[in-house]
């Protein structure tokens, strides 16, 4: 008899809640990872750095497990089709995993749980990717918070009370003893290496200590670049939150934003394709394809916008300050639907996270959770003046700035600002 531990977005051996409890409570624990073709089939680009990253991490974990006398079962396909076969092949008694709050994942887990129950196999899912999951931080009336600040206060109080600690060493002797199991290559799944570098998995204490002073300047190495590691669980949120709590409140606050948006998505799955504030679904987006293309390619003639888009296209990363600027520019200056921008980021960002990406875009478009947002139209010039005064970031990505090769502004700022305000007002007054 076997217990399966199913890895998903928790790709690490240390402080992995579901894995820890599987090894504590069961014998013959066989770790499993499924390259889910329901998800992978949606990716048009076959040189996807995120798939490459997951694959690399899975092979590392497999090698680590093999040093301990176990292995890792790698599968490629649809979980709902693979599980019935796995149950028979391994005489599975129970399945352990960590919870995931995205709509697709919740739906998938419901299906799998049903399928397992029908065969009398137990299913245990644990909280792992967050300090507090949707439902744990509620207001005085027991409802979810619609704005960030009170959410963050309650979050912080509860964090201080609960003294979150990483878990200790798992009971490795309960791993299922096996010869190394078969590998699946990237190529087997139709993917290739991307050539894009993944930021290291290091919570740099010095950087985090100064984060509040450096975080807004895209030319500085002033943010942690841990987004992809948080996305796939290659670092533990408990460890990182503990570090942040001891070193820098502003950094901890960003980790709270991450959980705020996960909570918003958890309670409001409709935000995936609708404005959080329903009235904002009325905005008549211009959706000009050529302008969208110019934005994607970093050819709008607004240097800070173009720098950001080129950074994204080349590295899979964009600084948060610049994400806000380019998103505001697309939705307000060009009046292009935030969902277009969101989808483009989803394709390109190494740290793409459905909840934060949707939250970030809705924030920029003014359709999301803040109080009075639509008047906020970022002025690219004054943002540059504040955050990239000596043009260091811009010149890195837009070396032809100031030459005849650089495009003229795609739209006049003053005109575009007024057009956005008028369009929003008209749509919301209806
Ligand atoms: P740091 O500044 O070092 O912050 C540490 C961690 O805190 C981040 O890795 C992230 O997990 C979390 N965090 C920081 N800021 C935010 C925030 N505003 N909202 C939620 N979590 C935050 N973040 C994503 O993780 N995935 C996305 O797909 C994503 N899309 C975005 C789209 C737009 C339009 C905007 C404005 C923001 C988006 N963000 C997204 C939030 C933020 O820009 C990134 O988390 C951050 O830039 C990642 O870089 P870092 O790892 O160096 O972050």
From TrEMBL:
Its cofactor is FAD; (6R)-5,10-methylene-5,6,7,8-tetrahydrofolate. SUPFAM superfamilies: Cryptochrome/photolyase FAD-binding domain, Cryptochrome/photolyase, N-terminal domain. Keywords: Chromophore, FAD, Flavoprotein. It holds the Pfam family FAD_binding_7. InterPro entries: Crypto/Photolyase_FAD-like_sf (IPR036134), Crypto/Photolyase_N_sf (IPR036155), Cryptochr/Photolyase_FAD-bd (IPR005101), Cryptochrome/DNA_photolyase_1 (IPR002081), DNA_photolyase_1_CS_C (IPR018394), DNA_photolyase_N (IPR006050), Rossmann-like_a/b/a_fold (IPR014729). Residues 1-131 form the Photolyase/cryptochrome alpha/beta domain. Belongs to the DNA photolyase family. This is Deoxyribodipyrimidine photo-lyase. It comes from Algoriphagus confluentis. The lineage of its organism: Bacteria, Pseudomonadati, Bacteroidota, Cytophagia, Cytophagales.
